[in-house]
TrEMBL record:
<dbReference type="InterPro" id="IPR002490">
    <property type="entry name" value="V-ATPase_116kDa_su"/>
</dbReference>
<dbReference type="GO" id="GO:0046961">
    <property type="term" value="F:proton-transporting ATPase activity, rotational mechanism"/>
</dbReference>
<keyword id="KW-0813">Transport</keyword>
<dbReference type="Pfam" id="PF01496">
    <property type="entry name" value="V_ATPase_I"/>
</dbReference>
<keyword id="KW-0406">Ion transport</keyword>
<feature type="transmembrane region" description="Helical">
    <location>
        <begin position="536"/>
        <end position="554"/>
    </location>
</feature>
<feature type="coiled-coil region">
    <location>
        <begin position="51"/>
        <end position="128"/>
    </location>
</feature>
<comment type="function">
    <text>Essential component of the vacuolar proton pump (V-ATPase), a multimeric enzyme that catalyzes the translocation of protons across the membranes. Required for assembly and activity of the V-ATPase.</text>
</comment>
<protein>
    <recommendedName>
        <fullName>V-type proton ATPase subunit a</fullName>
    </recommendedName>
</protein>
<dbReference type="GO" id="GO:0007035">
    <property type="term" value="P:vacuolar acidification"/>
</dbReference>
<feature type="transmembrane region" description="Helical">
    <location>
        <begin position="735"/>
        <end position="757"/>
    </location>
</feature>
<comment type="similarity">
    <text>Belongs to the V-ATPase 116 kDa subunit family.</text>
</comment>
<keyword id="KW-1133">Transmembrane helix</keyword>
<keyword id="KW-0472">Membrane</keyword>
<feature type="transmembrane region" description="Helical">
    <location>
        <begin position="569"/>
        <end position="589"/>
    </location>
</feature>
<feature type="region of interest" description="Disordered">
    <location>
        <begin position="680"/>
        <end position="702"/>
    </location>
</feature>
<dbReference type="GO" id="GO:0005886">
    <property type="term" value="C:plasma membrane"/>
</dbReference>
Length: 835
């Protein structure tokens, strides 16, 4: 089989590179993305490796670029992203990049420091301007209202006695600004500390001021404090300092205040001009940097990745050759050798690189090639567990089975069309949507699964046609094959009246899907749909499980595991076929032989219950006596065949349980405790054979599993399979249950919401219908498409992970993680967005 059905054959290779050509060769391999390097220095500290200084230099360059990026985003400048990936620069170009980043950082930091100093000066001048304006009002009020009562209130009784008529009391004052939220506490502290011997006036600054440190808008107030004496002056200044209030000089004379205010306004105008020029210069620097920032990030990350990879290599004794070990896909060795040759030519080296294939006992990594279509399906499988090396890959089969089983639960032509159109829109616009890189996790999940969504929608449209269900209504394309023998009024008045198949049915089934008359049936609609959907759920489930067991045959034949083939696969398949596939055959026999239009003994009344028949078969019970003129069994020899099937199926259980461990024990004794080919358990080989023509290197593991562990492992495996066959078959009934629930919810929404609007008449009815339709559409998309779709998706995922993959898929491998610039840059960009 091709690599689509199994992971790629891998080879462990040893790579010899000349020191001068190593950088260019690794760069070419990074562009290729097909080589996974192993760390040959696992015991060496990261700070003691050969290229640690180069990695540190790259870290420093990344730090400078992040600083530039932060400043660019702060100003809202768009960064140019051409989508192109520049090549990794040569080592000598690192010096030029470092010089460029150093110059830009220093220039930007200097501009920012100058701008901050100018903004701080501007803030001080602005606060002084407000102080001069507000204090002028205070002084005018003081001049108009200076009398003896005010002096007594300000200075207390002692001050009032000291003042004489005609004398002006000399008061000191300080003026400043303080944050508005600190003002109440500031005022209380002044009153308590100065014992009420100060007079505080304050006024709010209406416009918020910009904090030069962080650019936040802050609200402040102007205050002026009057006091008498140096002692109070000292105390007031200390309180202002404690509350971080800013004090400014304020002349006492009105003329001096006016002169200072004019000087402040002139300086503010000059500062505005200088600040504008500074911001323009800063903007020009950032715009120039924004044009190249994405490319600079790519270059630096590529350089860093190359040196980080070179740190995984070993140096030979001459210090002139680097030695690496790597996993490579067998089919791509020639492509890798060409890339190494290009790297050698770029570096100007005359010594060609050497790529030798090695033998190993290690399990190679699992590498499944994917494209944009198969990637999402492979991700579903890998979420359960990465396949063991060269194990059968369920992903290609999941492309069909996953949307089909989803559609069995979600079958509705209308809902499926909505889902398919959404998926098709994402597929048609995928280039533009992929370019809009977003950190919205929900959207990324939807977009990543766009092909799954589209296929689920298309398959749901198909099953919707089979069910003849579109928004809980039917399409009468070919005309119903049922006809009423009663008059219309009789049928409408009696909801329990049923049509007679012998007289009202044409005899030929509806050409495609369900006859539309079942959608308008009342009493027996759910009974009919239940019987139909329950049976097809079991049929699909048994076929799905048998297919999973057959997949295990491909694993056993590929890994040449003869014992597992004979004593696991065959008993498992026989057990499943003789019990559960036989039950499926009984369903088809019942559908074919028994009908409502047939005469006894093959009429509808004589049709036996499949469930009761199966229970009697397993328990060896004698069937109950059938109705008169009916036969006990569905076909000749049924009882004998059923007894034989049950006995053979039960006989398969000890074969699965004991045969393989006993043969392994016998083989070890004969070979003097040496394992023979095909006689090792899955636990011994890890489910993988590395030897022979299947590539990857060495033979079976050196260490053997204890016989007691083999018996325990086989017992668990057998019990799980036997009990799981029953529970897994019943688990597929979720197909019926969710399909029934989906159909009933759709009918409830139609009956209780949309039909109310359709019954309205007149122009008012049109308005009501519009509103009702909008409400119905929201509920349909929100509940029936999104929530029910998510529920059906999760149930389908469970059926694949547990019921299907448990038959053959171990998922004990580890993923192939090649050295790839694309993956490194994508991960770096994602982490930067998260920060």
């Amino acid at each position: 089989m091709g690599s689509l059905f199994r992971s790629e054959e891998m080879a462990l290779c040893q790579l010899f590179l000349q020191s001068e050509a190593a950088y260019a060769c690794v760069s070419e391999l990074g562009e290729l993305g097909l080589v996974q390097f192993r760390d040959l220095n696992p015991d060496v500290n990261a700070f003691q490796r050969k290229f640690v200084n180069e990695v540190r230099r790259c870290d420093e360059m990344e730090r400078k670029l992040r600083y530039l990026e932060k400043e660019i985003k702060k100003d809202g400048i768009p960064m140019l992203d051409t989508g192109e990936s520049p090549e990794a620069p040569q080592p000598r170009e690192m010096i030029d990049l470092e010089a460029t980043f150093e110059k830009l950082e220093n220039e930007l930091r200097e501009v920012n420091q100058n701008a901050e100093a100018l903004k701080r000066n501007f803030l001080e001048l602005t606060e002084l301007k407000h102080i001069l304006r507000k204090t002028q009002v205070f002084f005018d009020e003081m001049a108009d209202n200076q009398n003896e009562d005010e002096q007594a209130q300000l200075l207390g009784e002692e001050g009032a006695r000291a003042s004489q008529p005609g004398q002006n009391l000399k008061l000191g004052f300080v003026a400043g600004v303080i944050l508005r939220e600190r003002l109440p506490a500031f005022e209380r502290m002044l009153w308590r500390a100065c014992r009420g011997n100060v007079f505080l006036r304050q006024a709010m600054i209406e416009t918020p001021l910009e904090d030069p440190t962080n650019g936040d808008q802050v609200h402040k107030s102007v205050f002026i404090i009057f006091f008498q004496g140096d002692q109070l002056k000292t105390r007031v200044k200390k309180i202002c300092e404690g509350f971080r209030a800013t004090l400014y000089p304020c002349p006492e004379a009105p003329a001096d205040r006016r002169e200072m205010a004019m000087g402040v306004m002139t300086r503010i105008e000059d500062l505005n001009t200088v600040l504008g020029q500074t911001q323009d210069h800063r903007h020009r620097v950032l715009v120039a940097a924004a044009k190249n920032l994405k490319n600079w990030f790519v270059k630096v990350r590529k350089i860093k990745a190359i040196y980080h990879t070179l740190n995984l290599f070993n140096l030979d004794v001459t210090q002139k050759c680097l030695i690496a070990e790597c996993w490579v896909p067998l089919l791509d060795i020639e492509t890798i050798q060409l890339a190494l040759r290009r790297g050698t030519e770029r570096s100007g080296s005359s010594v060609p690189p050497i790529l030798n294939r090695m033998q190993t006992f290690e399990n190679p990594p699992t590498y499944n090639r994917t494209n944009k279509f198969t990637k999402a399906f492979q991700a579903l499988i890998d979420a359960y567990g990465v396949a063991s090396y060269r194990e059968m890959n369920p992903a290609p089969y999941t492309i069909i089975t996953f949307p089909f089983l989803f559609a069995v639960m979600f079958g509705d032509l209308g809902h499926g069309a909505i889902m398919a159109l959404f998926g098709l829109w994402m597929i048609r616009k995928e280039k533009g949507l992929a370019a809009q890189k977003t950190d919205n996790e929900i959207w990324n999940i939807f977009f990543g699964g766009r092909y799954i969504i589209f296929l689920m929608g298309v398959f749901s449209m198909y099953t919707g046609l089979i069910y003849n269900d579109i928004f809980s209504k039917s399409l009468n394309i070919f005309g119903s094959h049922w006809h009423m023998s009663y008059n219309k009024s009789t049928v409408l008045e009696n909801k329990y009246l049923q049509l007679n198949p012998k007289g009202d049915y044409e005899g030929d089934p509806y050409p495609f899907g369900m006859d539309p008359i079942w959608q308008v049936a009342g009493a027996n609609k759910i009974i009919f749909h239940n019987a139909y959907k329950m049976k097809i759920s079991i049929i699909f489930g048994v076929i799905h499980m048998i297919f999973g067991v057959v997949m295990s045959w491909h694993n056993h034949t590929y890994f040449r595991n003869r014992i597992s083939m004979l004593y696991e696969f065959i008993p498992q398949l026989v057990f499943l076929l003789l019990l559960f596939f036989y039950m499926v055959l009984l369903m088809f026999i019942k559908w074919i032989k028994f009908a409502a239009t047939n005469a006894k003994p093959y009429s509808e009344a004589c049709a036996p219950s499949i469930l009761i028949t199966f229970i009697d078969m397993v328990l060896f019970n004698t069937p109950k006596a059938p109705p008169q003129d009916c036969e006990t069994y569905m076909f000749f020899g049924q009882h004998f065949i059923q007894v034989l099937f049950v006995l053979v199926a039960v006989g398969c259980i000890p074969v699965m349980l004991l045969a393989k461990p006993l043969l392994i024990m016998q083989a070890r004794k004969q070979a003097n405790v040496q394992p023979i080919a095909g006689a090792t358990s899955d636990a011994e080989t890890g489910g993988v054979s590395n030897g022979g023509s299947h590539g990857g290197g060495g033979g079976p593991h050196e260490e053997e599993e204890e016989l007691s562990e083999i018996f325990i492992h086989q017992s668990i495996h057998t019990i799980e399979y036997v009990l799981g066959s029953v529970s897994h078959t019943a688990s597929y009934l979720r197909l019926w249950a969710l399909s029934l629930a989906h159909a009933q919810l759709a009918e409830v929404l139609w009956t209780m919401v949309l039909s109310i609007g359709l019954k309205q008449e007149g122009w008012l009815g049109g308005i009501i219908l519009t509103c009702v339709f909008a409400f119905w559409a929201i509920l349909t998309v929100g509940i029936l498409v999104l929530m029910e779709g998510l529920s059906a998706f999760l149930h389908t995922l469970r059926l694949h992970w547990v019921e299907f993959q448990s038959k053959f898929y171990k998922g004990q491998g580890y993923a192939f993680q090649p050295f790839s610039f694309d993956a490194i840059i994508e991960n770096g960009a994602a982490s930067a967005e998260a920060e």
